User: Fold this.
Amino acid sequence: MENNDTEYIEGSGDDFLKYLFSSSPREQNSVKIELDIPNGIKLGLHIFQELLMIFTMGLKYLYSDKEVLNIATISPEDVEKLNKHFQSFGHTLLVERFSVSDYLSNMKLPNYFKDKHLINDETLLRDIYYETSIPCSSGKTFGVNDFIYRITFDFLK
Assistant:
């Protein structure tokens, strides 16, 4: 809730990322973000895309090595720290890692991020996700020992 102690910061997305990630995570719901009005896409997808951008840029800000980032190098503690940052502005973050065999029994359909036309006004933020696969080996083909990562967001309850 806004009060006399409310701090307003204007600036670019980079300014916001620096403000958010340059200190320890703040209290839950203590940071208010304002997103631009979506232009031609559903509101839920717009929110998801903005959160995914904040997640990606936060990972780069906190954990990249010369602008190179491999999500496979991020520890559960790193994800929890990012989640606390997300909670500061009223959202939760979930990053799940699956082996290929585990993924087959944890498939989530539909994939709204790929099939955006399926999103409607009743689609929940937590139902939209992004998946990426990271080969463990140095080869370019995806194998049995590799991992799939699923990233989802939700509103903090």
Residues 13-155 form one domain. The longest strand covers residues 91-99.
